[in-house]
Each structure stands twice: as structure tokens, then as C-alpha cells.
Known about the structure:
With 213 residues, this protein is α/β, with parallel strands linked by helices. It is built from 8 helices and 5 strands. Bound molecules: thymidine-5'-diphosphate.
Amino acid sequence: MTKRGFFVSFEGGDGCGKTTQMRLLLERLRSQGKDVLETAEPGGTPIGRQIRRILLDSANDALSPRAEMLLYFACRAQNVDEWIRPALAAGRIVVSDRFTDSTLAYQGEGRGLTAELVRELHAIACQEILPDLTIYLDIDYRTGLARARARNAEQDGPDESRMEAQAEEFHERVRRGYLALAAAEPERIRTIDARQSLEAVAAAIWAEVQPHV
Ligand code: TYD
């Protein structure tokens, strides 16, 4: 690859506010005339959105942990090939709502599949594509879950509650997983306290992103 863009991912437990914060960052970047690709995991591409429906439908409670992990990676492989790699090759900024750190936290720590397995599948699905910068919005899982469940109850769209419906211990392990990832890679993964006001979180995110774009 010759010219390369910049890849930012957002991470955090359910209900950490990352979708709102990601929208604010995108508005700010675009208002400065930056060329940005917005994507999400699971989802993003039209094929990815079909996979997302399977993953988040609470009727699919029989989905096995390995099948779940492979579907998350199938979705990501499509996103990398169809959208992310071409955008980075064209020098664009890519902003993704979640990426492989989610799989390390949710399937690795949460489901107890090993980090080695997740990393092997990452190499197959994403090859060399990894975020240059990851914004991790840290929140205690109880506060986050209460927010996420309230939001799902209000929504009219498809049922997306399968992950939020997991036991509290699952979400506690997910948070521990994120904190360990952030401790292992503090340069790439920047931790921001998501209990602060919306404005304070947005300012902290901008301070991390602005030097790179
Ligand atoms: P998302 O749409 O980001 O939901 P939220 O806004 O509630 O964070 O993600 C959907 C769910 O999928 C969320 O519970 C996290 C989970 N997930 C995984 O378990 N593994 C993964 O690899 C990804 C990308 C998400």
C-alpha cells in the first residue's frame, strides 16, 4: 500500500455512549472538510448488516460461542475488503464503531475463548488492518447496561438485545478484558472516563484524534 489514511476505532461496553460520541467526532471532522468513511462492527456493509441481524437477535440464544465469533469475523472480513482497506489505501480517515478489540473483550474474555484464537482469526479476517488509534470509553458495567437496556426498550427497530441480555458477570468480564487490553497497549488504546459529561468526553476524544488528522 502506498498512501495510507488513518484508522480510528471506538470501543466500550454496552451503553458507554460511543455511538453518540462517534457521531460528534464525525461531525467535527467533516465540518473541517476531512474525507471520512464511517463504519461499524457488526454491520457496516450491506452484507455485514445481514450478519448483524443474526448476531443480535435475542431469538438466537442457541448460537454457540465459536459460531458467534466466526460471524463477527465474517462481518469484519467483508468490511475490511469492501470498505476499510480501499478507504485507507485512498488516504481517507476511517472511523469504526467497534473492531477486533470488541472480539477480544466479548468473545475472548466474556465467552472464555482464548486471545490466541481471536488473534489468529483476526489475522485471517483482517490481515494487516488494525486501528491506528482506539478510543476506549470506560464505564462500570451496571451504569452502561442500564443505559443500553433503556435504549433497546424504546427502539422500534429489530430486536438487538441478545448481547445486552447476557448475565452481569459476562459484562463484568468484558470490562476487565478492555482494561487489560488498554493496559497492554496504552499508546494505541486511549482510555476515557465515560461517566464525565458528554462535552467533557467529546473534548477528551478530540484531544486524542486531532494531532493525527
Ligand atoms: P453495538 O452495535 O456497538 O452495540 P452497542 O451500541 O450496544 O455497543 O454492538 C453490538 C453488540 O455486539 C455489543 O453487545 C457488543 C457485541 N460485539 C461482540 O460481542 N463482539 C464483537 O466482535 C463486536 C464487534 C461486537
